[in-house]
Model the fold of this input.
Amino acid sequence: MVSRRKLLSSASMLALIPVANLIPTTVFAATNVDLSNASAVALKYVENATDAQRTDKMGTAGADQVCDNCRFYTVDAGNSARGGCVLFQNQLVAGKGWCAGWVPTA
Ligand code: SF4
Done:
């Protein structure tokens, strides 16, 4: 049986693990985003950005916004047309795609 003191100590140690260490740094995505996925629908994700009504955002014209130049996009070394996205974990988005979560790179 684990003592209360030991349990509390273990829990406090977990709090010391930086959240950044829990975020994967490589793309493990295997499948393309399912367009019927609730997140994809809510974020209005499209495979071809020209199919979306994009408005100017953060100083970038809507017409210039694509996944390729989004802060959340991660290039997949084995696939030049698709990559990972922080908003769609374990899935691949199209480099020429777009969603309402688009944010310019820093
Ligand atoms: S967050 Fe960025 S990279 Fe992800 S789907 Fe939306 S536009 Fe593309």
Summary: The longest helix spans residues 4-14.
